[in-house]
Amino acid sequence: MDKNKFFKVGITGAVVTAxxxxxxxxxxxxxxFGIGAMVAYLDMILxxxxxxxxxxxxxxxxxxxxx
Length: 67
Fold this sequence. Notes:
Keywords: Membrane, Transmembrane, Transmembrane helix. This protein is an all-alpha fold.
């Protein structure tokens, strides 16, 4: 994978995950689809996912600076 792709995917994924963590976007969507009971488990998925995307962005930034 291209070094810039790691950075771009990491930043994009982190922004989308942060929006879903901070705002009630997923709560509204889950309620609309009738699966509102799953809202309690969002933190177990979103926070590790945010860490993965931030790690990916950091790795892409580090590799881009090595050029």
